[in-house]
Structures are given as C-alpha cells and as structure tokens.
Fold this protein.
Amino acid sequence: MPTPTDPAPDAGTPVIEFVDVEKRFGDNVVLKDLDFTVERGERVTLIGPSGSGKTTILRLVMTLEELTGGYIYIDGEPLTHREREGRRVPVSKKEQKRLRTRIGMVFQQFNLFPNMTVLENIVEAPIHVLGRSKAEATEKAHDLLRQVGLSDKADAHPTSLSGGQQQRVAIARALAMDPEILLLDEVTSALDPEVVGEVLNILRTVAETTNVTMLIVTHEMGFARDVSHKVMMFDGGRVVESGPPEKIFSDPDHERTQAFLSAVL
Ligand code: ADP
C-alpha cells in the first residue's frame, strides 16, 4: 500500500537545484552556502524558527527576490544566472519568464487581484501568459472551482469572500497554470482556525492526485507529516538536518530540531 512518504514517482530528476546559494539583504546574510535538490514529484517541507530564511527560499524560486550569490536551476536550466568561465552571468528576462511559467505560488495573504472577479483571477495568466483561448481557460477554471468547492463564486469579487474562500481561489489560480512546481508559503497562517482544515484538505487532494513538485513552508506539522516526502529543518539560513517526516518528527538527530519541535508541537 503506497503511503505519502513513499519515494516520489519520478525520483531522480532534480526539478529544483540550489547550488552555493547566498541571499543577503544589505549586510544581513540570510542564506549562506545553501545546497539542496528537490526531485520531480517530491514534496518537501521547510520547517524552522521564524527568520531562518524559509520564505526567502520560496521567493527566490519565484524570482520575487534577487539572488545575491550562487545558482538556482529549474529542470537543469539556470533561473537567474549561469556559470560561464567561473563568473555569474545573468540569464535573459525572456529565459527567466519562460521558466517562471512552470512555477506557481500560493501566498499567506492570498494576493488575488481585487478588481477582478474570481473567474477573471483564474483565467488571467493562462490567457495572457500561456496564450490559451478564453474558452479553454474558462472551462478549466470552472473545473478547478468545482475542485475547491466554489462553483457558485465564479462571478464574485475576492473582497466579498471569506479568507478561506479567497485562499481556495488562490490555489485554483495557481493550478490553472498547470505548474510543475507549486510553492506554498504559510498558506493557512492568515486564516481563522475553523477554515484551516478545508484548505489543507484541498492541498492534500492536490498532493494525492497530481505529480506536482511542492516546496512548502508551514507551521501545520500534521499536514507536513502527511504530505511531505522530505522535511528540511532550517536554522540561521542553514539546513540543520533533513529526512523523511517520520524520522524528523519522531526521532530528530539535532538538539535544535528537538527544541523547535517541542516548542511547536
Ligand atoms: P522565515 O520564513 O524562516 O520566517 P524569512 O525568509 O521571512 O524567514 O526571513 C529571513 C530573514 O530575512 C529575516 O531576518 C528577515 O528579516 C529578512 N528579510 C526577509 N525579507 C526581507 C526584505 N525584503 N528586506 C530585508 N530583510 C528581509
């Protein structure tokens, strides 16, 4: 019987690769000498104290932050810089944009376009970025709205929806692009406790029914344990330890992981 922690179906193909990554904000070095890979179809959760650099990692993959050192590869292609004769050479905006279409992100604060309806939010990028027809994009959007239980809200404006509903729309919007990689940045942290479960259940279903690679930052340790193939514990911008969730949550090697988990569990 397969379990969520079995190896990812296509393990062996790195879909995200960090090589010697450094990220500094001014003099504040947030990430240093960071190396890790995420395989195709793998779901990896980043845990660790606030300020340890987890969200910054997701924002670097989404190219929302400037990479100040090292390299990030998506499907083996450089995302921001390539190495040429030992020097970092920026990739073109066009190349970067092409890679970015493979990546979707769901944010803590939903970030829906407030001036558009729910349906318009979902079809915008498939039409304008992927060049899909309006009919095709609309049909897919309705399918996705059904999946997230919001078929009746297609013509609503985001501001008329609850936080949980807005986040379900944001998940539908990200999935409408058929992303290879889905980045989830504390997607339930801004929600009322009673709607956290419904959002996590939708994401559990996405995890069970698709092969999308996921990089997740969450404080929901039960969810992390259920859906992750791998958990990476961060502290001070470095990986303290990583492994399957049953190992990290039940029998962590490092004192810092034990201290973190005893504070949050
Ligand atoms: P985490 O997600 O683990 O809580 P973050 O990645 O949000 O950590 O933040 C890591 C560090 O980077 C923190 O010290 C934070 O203050 C700093 N940081 C994040 N974003 C910015 C920014 N836009 N400008 C300056 N410092 C930032």
